[in-house]
Design a protein that fits this description.
Fusion Protein Consisting Of Minor Coat Protein, Glycine Rich Linker, Tola, And A His Tag, Chain: A, Domain 2
Length: 268
């Protein structure tokens, strides 16, 4: 019996294991493929994938294909039915209210603004009065020599008594009267004369004027006969003569129609 079994064993052909290796390789590839699809399915869709069932065989029969269960297709969501289009009615036409026959009050005309009064100009301040020049003190009238005065009194007494003085004494008295009268006029004119700084003039130049007057003493003409060489002094003397009209008369009330008067700045 043992001999027969051993003989059968020798007579049986050797078993070919190539198919088993190929099945194992296919099984490993199928598992890797499933794992890859599973990972990709997780990344693409958050839904839980359908469960797969796999049967692993340690040994697969020869020439028997491996049944691979493919995943069920996901249900396609049905499209929502289109919403019915609701037509909006056109807006109603605005109804114009009837015009009321009411007169609107006319706008009052705007009043023109009254012009502002111009500010008053400041009144000019009164200028201070200039101090009036003080009148120059009158210079004392020239003193007459006592002898001349005595002779004049004698002549006047002789004239009253009707005595006729001699010709020499008459001519001398007349000349003295003229000299006294001219000196009196000169002193009167000097009282009207204004010439400051007479003491600073070099020398004592003389200016001579001819004066014509009426019987009442009013001056009718002034003529310069000689210049002092100092125009300011000449002008001052002429102005003083103009202010002196009318001139005083002589003691007997007479006047000389023509007078020749000389003036020096340093004479007193």
């Amino acid at each position: 019996m043992s001999k027969e079994s051993g003989l059968e064993a020798r007579l049986d052909p050797p078993v070919d294991h190539t198919g088993e290796k190929a099945g194992l390789t296919v099984s490993v590839i199928a598992h890797l493929t499933l794992v890859a699809f599973f990972v990709v399915g997780l990344n693409w869709n958050t839904e839980e994938p359908a469960a797969f069932e796999a049967v692993l065989w340690s040994e697969m029969p020869a020439n028997e294909p491996i049944a691979v269960q493919q995943p069920k297709p996901e249900p396609v969501p049905e499209p929502e039915p289109p919403k019915p289009v609701v037509e909006t009615p056109p807006p109603p036409k605005p109804v114009e209210p009837p015009k009321a026959d009411i007169e609107l009050p006319k706008p009052e005309p705007k009043k023109k603004p009254e012009p502002k009064p111009e500010p008053k100009k400041p009144e000019p301040k009164p200028e201070p009065k200039k101090p009036e020049p003080k009148p120059e003190p009158k210079k004392p009238e020239p003193k007459i020599d006592p002898e001349v005065a005595k002779k004049l009194r004698q002549e006047e007494l002789a004239r009253i008594m009707g005595g006729a003085p001699n010709t020499g004494s008459t001519s001398a008295g007349t000349s003295r009267n003229k000299a006294l009268y001219s000196d009196r006029i000169r002193q009167y004119v000097r009282s009207k004369l204004v010439f400051p700084g007479a003491d600073t003039v070099d020398g004592n130049p003389e200016a001579v004027f001819e004066v014509k007057q009426l019987p009442n003493g009013e001056i009718v003409s002034i003529t310069q006969k000689k210049s002092s060489g100092l125009p300011a002094w000449d002008s001052a003397v002429e102005r003083a003569l103009q202010r002196s009209s009318p001139l005083p008369r002589a003691e007997d009330g007479s006047v000389e129609p023509v007078l020749v008067l000389s003036f020096r700045p340093k004479d007193v």
